[in-house]
Amino acid sequence: MTNMLQQLSGTCARALAAAASAILIAACGGTSSDVPEGDFVPPRAAWELVFEDNFDGNSLDTSKWNIELGDGCPDLCGWGNAEVQIYTPDNITVANGTLTIQGRQELDGTYTSARINTKGKFDFRYGRVEVRARLPVGQGVWPAIWMLHSDPSIYGVWPRSGEIDIMEAFNPGNGNNEVRSTTHYGLPTPPFNGTGSGFDLGVSPDMAFHVYEMEWEKDSIRFYVDGQHFQTQKSDQWYTYYPADEQTGLYNEFGAFRQGEEDAPFNQLFHLIINLAIGGNPVGNPDPGAFPQDLEIDYVRVYKCANSDPDTRLGCGRADLSAVVLKDNDGGPLEAADTAQPYTDALDLYTDGPETIELSVGADIASNSLQPETFGDPGATVVSEPLFSPPGSGGNIAWHVMVSGGNGGVALASEDLSNDQILDTGFNFSDNRKFGIGGDAVGEIAFRMRVDSLDPGAQLVFRLDSGNGDAGEIALPESEILIGQWKTYSVKFRHFRDNPLPGGNGVDFAAVLKPFVLEVRGGAAELLVDDIRATTACKVVSACGVDLKVRALPDLVVYDDAVDLVTWDVGINGADSGSNFANYGDPSDPNNKVNWREIPAPLDPARGNVLEVTFNDSSAFGVWFIQSTVPRDLSAYSEGAVEFDIKVLDYANNTAGMTMKIDCVFPCTSNDRPLGRIADGVWETVSVPVASLIATGLDVNQVNTGLVVFPTAQNQVGKQVFLLDNIRWVSTTTAPPLQQIDLPVTFDDLNTNYTMIDFEGQGTFLTTDPDDPSNQVAQTTKGVGAQTFAGTIVGTSEGFANPIPFTATEQALSLRVRPPAAGIPILLKIENADASATAEVQVNTTVANQWETLVFDFSSVGININTPYKRAILFFDFGNIGSDTTFLWDDLQLAAGGGMLQQIDLPVTFDDPNVNYVLTDFGGTVSALVNDPDPANAGNRVAQTVKSAGAATFAGTTLGSGTGFANPIPFTPTATRMSVRVWVPTPGIPVRLKVENADASVTSEVQVQTTVSNQWETLVFDFANAGIDTTATFVQAVIFFDFGNFGNDATYYWDDLQFGP
Fold it and tell me: What span, in angstroms and rounded, lies between the C-alpha atoms of 821 and 841?
């Protein structure tokens, strides 16, 4: 290793924030930009090996590797992921050119494994990492080859300083052949899933060694498996946001938050880590029967791009332009959310004096003028000059404060707005303002301060105050205070939250009365303060903020005798499929689907003018709306409603009624809100809570339509006419708060919060049933590259309002699904509140592009009906990487009539609707129940099994779930045969049938070859030929098609598995 050490100048080493002993790929060397042009020809950039371990010895080379020990406690118990293993050196062996990390269960029931890293022995920036490895398999297995930052003093601890997962696999081989590559970065708030995607090896990861690679250069990270480039991440999609010292730019807890450079945090030194974790959040509890398991490493190599610019290391990499370039949060639970990098908000409190903060609502303006205050102990002297111009400052204004003779200080307090119609006294610094996750914020009060004098031992204490003793405070550490010089300081919302005043309830961040309080304690001080501001940051757009506290807003008028063109400057428009949905403003063109005019209200002169809207009789689909050019932030109306008066003069042939929605810059929308056949010949006031529109997709911070209304889709035949009046947004509503989701889930109750939480690349919103426009359903898309286990939590993380009402005779849930194809596996998982008890059932679809009801019988997996299951999670196309497939679903409920399907038993005919024909695939087969391929028997239902390309030689299908048949197979010494009808694509296909007892400790299997193709034949399996023990109790059967050969996407049909003849 000594030949790889590179000498660095102090300047370069500091620029790279590296320790003097670090081995740097990003060395200050290579071609210099200062070399003049001429005869000099710079050497060609090329990969140069700088670190290698082929594991040729008989022990780990500790000059290259550190061995980590323990369970992570006390600082990071469970290694931050609820892992169960203890790391020991005894789980590491080096022999025959291979490093083996073994995970195993010890005699006392504990699990042990190993983890090694190169920190301090090989730290590098930029380069190519190449690791050849064979992975372990099984439930609870989590092997990883990854990288962590080497110096958290730059951006802070994880995840701010970044993590690069070159390869990790969750439960590999357990119905899952995928490996993943991921980066972690950004805010230290949940969710922490990062940005990543998977690569399907096609076969079980333990069957062969594979080469896992990563190329890293400035602004780009690329991932490869066996030389195939499958993923790229770019610096415009990652970020770091951290508190920094204003002079050095390094992490400082009491520095103001700042955004890192564009390529931060992946512009610093990292080190390698290899480990085999057992259990943990991504994989669940381990299966003791799966262990021991070995992670085998053939070699580890790291290259630098030699003769390249050390600040970029560009010039050596290779890329497949078709490889997926990921976006922030791809593969994570926020993938479908409106996120930012990060979303930030700021509020100036003092700039050359206390601020007056204004809120505009249409033509109205409300304001809050901050008031400087003083306070102190009896006898204390407090001097407060909030408009002080320090000598030599060139007229700059600062707040001059002197305290002596006791504890005392100053504060900025909200103006008393008790009589204001719009604003309430105080400020709203709250977070988690949207449903779901990603709204946890990191906030601060930042300011510039010059401390001219401070008595020894005196403290500067800062407070955030909500009144009535509800406050939090933090003392600025003495080491942070700079005497005689201006410096930017920051005290964090977390500081205030973690240090509540005794006797109070802590800060109410939604009702801050004094956003800045400075107290001098234990001595005298003189200081200047300037540029006071509050900031906040979170992952989801508008889920946090630093705002004025709103009491009530005036109605935001859209139309009342006229369109409010100040807010809605585009005015009235129409669009239809005939115009290719191009907006048109001509109200009377007969060629348009939609016409409109302003008229005096018929028979109701007190109304003044109203809008008459006509949908002409044509085959086009149209919409009518009032729009603005600039999106409007209407978050102040989140607790209110969109209201309008409507009177339908002529419904023509419309039987479904009217629909409304609100748009927020295409494709953002609240989605259609069916209103039914309302206001038929009479005026009716419609009030739609904004919260319900937010719950179905509206981003209330960028609204660009005041109202969209139209006759419901597929009901626009015939000339239809309606009147509109008094269109407005109101800040309060008498509508009850949205109710927590509960069974049955129908998506039709406007008072229910139908928020869904998607994760790992699945996205869900509410839409209109294509077969029934009056019905609202959920649409879920499993995006390209989405995880095999991408899913959707039905409702928020709190789950259902009440536990699923399972009983001894009712243990099934049903779901209406409209899938894109037959044979797609859909997994339904149920959990209790803390996910300590779970159950899951998988059912395959049987139709394409039409509705069907799937029944998930949880009695088949032996649930405890006394467990309060409160959450349901749907996994579409479970076990497969996402390919942008879309599913519609509706009516999740306790199965009608109890829903208890009978346990599968011989003979298996697939024709009894009361039997639970669960087929459990493994190794790469995909099975479903379909119609008989013989046209003469099209009404007969049979099983279809596809042995996917690359499926394991032993891929097969188990009949039933884990409990097998209802009764044992009735083998006797003279009755040992079973038969099955099969339909295969070619003759000579080896078909194997295996029978097992309950715990698979006793098995027997027989193989028979087919003799015909594309027609039915009956195969007979005589287990006497396999020496079956007929005294054993066999309750399970497994069928294998083309046994012993890898899958090639061949399709097999089978039916009528029975005992005999």
Answer: 20
Residues 285 and 262 reside in one and the same domain: yes
Neighbours of 717 (CB within 10 A): 14
User: 442-454 and 486-492 as β-strands: parallel, antiparallel, unpaired?
Assistant: antiparallel
Calculate the CA 970 to chain-centre distance.
50
**Considering 130, 163, 612, 643, which one is annotated as catalytic?**
163
Q: Would residue 130 show up in a list of annotated catalytic residues for this protein?
A: no
Strand pairing partners for 514? 465
Kindly report the number of other CB atoms within 10 A of residue 370's CB atom.
24
Tokens of 219: 């602004």
Question: The tokens 């700021």 sit on which residue?
Answer: 346
Percent share of the chain, pLDDT over 90: 70
Which two structure tokens, joined as six digits, stand for 537?
Answer: 């940051």
| C-alpha Rg value of the chain to the nearest Å | 34
pLDDT tens for each residue of 66-122: 999 999 999 999 999 999 999 999 999 999 999 999 999 999 999 999 999 999 999
Q: Is 635 helix (H, G, I), strand (E, B) or coil?
A: helix
pLDDT 10s digits, 567-591 = 899 999 999 999 899 999 999 999 9
Please tell me whether residues 405 and 510 are part of one structural domain. Answer: yes
Question: Is 25 part of a structural domain of the chain?
Answer: no
Measured over the CA atoms of residue 561, residue 564, residue 569 and residue 572, the dihedral's sign is negative
Residue 843, pLDDT score: 93
Nearest to 927 by CA among 912, 940, 910, 944: 944
pTM: 0.60
Residue 207: Cβ within 10 Å count: 16
- Indicate the residue among 502, 520, 550 that finishes a domain: 550
Distance CA 925, CA 948 (A): 6
- Both 382 and 463 in one domain: the answer is yes
pLDDT of residue 501: 95
Backbone φ and ψ for 752, nearest 5 degrees, come out as -110, 140
Q: Which residue has the higher pLDDT, 774 or 561?
A: 561
Write a three-state SS string for 1010-1058: CCCCCCCEEEEEEHHHHCCCCCCCCCEEEEEECCCCCCCCEEEEEEEEE
1039 contacts 959 by C-beta, under 8 angstroms: yes
CA angle 147–145–29, rounded 5-degree value: 45
Spatial strand order of the sheet with 658-661 comes to 571-576, 622-632, 703-711, 658-661, 673-676
d(CA 649, CA 638): 32
DSSP SS3 for 773: strand
Rounded to whole angstroms, the Cα distance separating 574 from 621 reads: 11
Domain count, the chain: 5
The mean pLDDT value for 136-141 works out to 96
Strands (DSSP E) along 17-91, which ranges?
Answer: 46-53, 66-68, 85-87
Q: Specify whether the CB–CB gap between 328 and 338 falls below 8 A.
A: no
460/487 Cα distance (integer angstroms):
14
745, β-bridge pairs: 892
pLDDT of 168 strictly over 60: yes
Q: Are 284 and 139 in contact (CB under 8 A)?
A: yes
| Those residues with Cβ within 8 angstroms of residue 1002's Cβ, 6 or more apart along the chain or in another chain | 996, 1029, 1032, 1034
Tokens of 1047: 């899958």
352 Cβ contact partners less than 8 Å away, ≥ 6 residues apart: 396, 397, 530
Tokens 């479904």 belong to residue: 656
**pLDDT of 313 strictly over 60:** yes
Chain mean position to CA 943? 36
In this structure, what CATH number is given to the domain that contains residue 123? 2.60.120.200
* Domain CATH code at residue 635: 2.60.120.430
**The amino acid at 517:** V
Task: Pick the closest to residue 818 from 756, 747, 885, 761 (CA basis).
Answer: 885
Catalytic residue among 168, 519, 810, 996: 168
What is the residue whose two structure tokens read 């859909």?
Answer: 826
Q: Is 798 a catalytic residue?
A: no
Which amino acid is located at 290 in the chain?
A
Altogether, the residues listed in the chain come to a count of 1061
